[in-house]
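User: Could you walk me through two proteins back to back? I'd like the raw sequence and the structure tokens for each, with a short line separating them so I can tell where one ends and the next begins.

Assistant: Of course. Protein one, sequence then structure:
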Amino acid sequence: MELGKEIKQSKFKNEYQKAMLNVMYTGNWVNAEHARFFKNYGLSPQQYNLLRILKGQHPMPASVNLLIDRMLDKMSNASRLVEKLRQKKLVERKTSETDRRQVDVILTEEGFAILEQIEQDFGVLEDNFKKLNEEEVIFLNKILDKVRG
């Protein structure tokens, strides 16, 4: 649906303001869809993001600083997220062998298993973007990269 109808606003200062609001509104909508999806697995989108980072690092452990650098949501508290994932037995924390001040995080078998399960169902989230053809998706990615660039 068109932004103006969604937020019940017929006029915008200009198209730049409308675009900024549209990106914010759409981002919030996507975040809500992700939160609803991951809730089925007892995870938050931020926890899922950490699990994916750890899977990409495997078999090497990841420091909390590495996780922070790679996280999509830079406002998240990585240490708190790691602790919640540890309590769910999806990750393990160990003192680094090379630096006793550093904590290394690794994915457990349970962590791999839940990622596998999510991977099978993940297409549901991608379906939201299937309204676009591949050329449009490529263009959208270029535009979003340009906005941030």
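----
Protein two, same layout:
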Amino acid sequence: MRSTTAALTGLTDRRQARLTAGLVATVVFLTAIAPLATDMYVPAFPQVAGDLSSTATQVQLTLTTFFVGMALGQLVGGPVSDQRGRRTPLILALAVMAAASIACALTPTIAVMTAARFVQGFAGGWAMVIGRAVIVDLATGAQLVRVLNIIAGVGGLAPIVGPLVGAAILQLSDWRVSFWVVAALGLAMIVAVLIAVPESLPRERRHAGGLRTFLTAGRIVLGNREYVGYLIVAGAAMGALFAYVATSAFVLQAMNGLSPIAYSIDFAANAAGMTVAALIAARLAGRVSTRKIILTGQIAALAAGIAMLAGAMWFGTPLILTMACFFVLMTAQGLMIPNGGALASAAVPEHPGTGSAVQGFVQWVAAGTIAPIAGLGGSTTAVPMALLITAGAAVSMAGLLIARSNLCSIKT
């Protein structure tokens, strides 16, 4: 009788949990938290340092701790959601994120800010990984690739909007308001989840909890050669992306004399290129080989990296070449990261939460590691950044080769 009841409950859950426009919009909302919480805040670094009597390095550390929190939050949140279901842990994570944002807004010292930023990142990463897992629960094949590309494409608007909102806040008020805005968005996300996101993981599909189960699931997903290959594809591309993010201001402004306004316009144009590429890839899903789309992006990124390296080493990093290379690189990311992530998720459908967690962890560790290394050139040379972009594209290509020997059922 109990098994019959469980089966009927699972059937009801599956009927209720459908991939709707509202659900997809909510997941887009969730994925926007990282760029919004970062890009709205970065323009205020000098003000934060002055108000909290801290150094520029200490303020930069609040960004690093946020990225570390994002990575760990995704690593933990995915397996927990595989055990407990998606909806309740997601709501809890959003509540914690909102509370941490309020702590940032009220912080009296840089030490409190640093700790609160870690918690904010941890909860935000937890929410992001569960959002991706919900999509993997409900979509398969070309539909999964299409939806994840749409999420990446629309979510790509956040890096465009974030700096503009942050700049507007600084014009009208002070940096603390940006954290009140993030807290309000967290509460809005909770409402959106309550309205649009049903439980997508029935009880009979959940895994038992505990560290041993997590390690077992981790070994399973990392033992899947196809998954590892696509994990490398997306992770290496993410590293190249953040090499650009960390150094583009120095390269374009300090080395080439671009004004802050002109730089912001160029940054927005590059982010728009990435968004358009992801949306085009979404329309091509199921009609064009996803692996071919990824390879196209990898070739473009590699060419941009090589051209940037040549320009930095022999031609003084000319402005036109640099801007063109940045645009090509960012557009290529729209073909590589969401498609690589989609095929990685599709390779481990039995462990969607753990697969998404490992994927998110690797990507954000890559972001947090590459960014400071890329900045070693300071405002005098772009060679370290160009080397990392080139290496990222090459390693991403290697990941595609690793995955090739064990293709999944998606049309690749």
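Residues 217-405 form a domain with the Growth Hormone; Chain: A; fold (CATH 1.20.1250.20).

Let me know if you want the two compared in more detail.
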